[in-house]
Amino acid sequence: xxxxxxxxxxxxxxxxxxxxxxxxxxxPRDKQKVIFDxxxxxxxxxxxxxxxxGLGLSIAxxxxxxxxxxxxxxxEPGRGSTFYFTIPLSPNVNF
Length: 95
Hints:
This protein is mainly beta. 12% of the residues lie in helices and 33% in strands.
């Protein structure tokens, strides 16, 4: 019910690296490899009205990969999660 979300972006290795961190419940280690699969949720308690259907991260992964990037997370249960994704830049983009 309380917490923080921070969002950041930086130029890294010819790509934009995005970072989204939260102070939420975190993702258990055994779910971290499958959390980007369709219909997989970190918490399988179907009575929780806050949880979704488990499609958001799989859709995000599909978009990121379609653009040639990668997506991953670092998480610790009880402390929150940080999701990262990269989007490669065109060779014509200068910073």
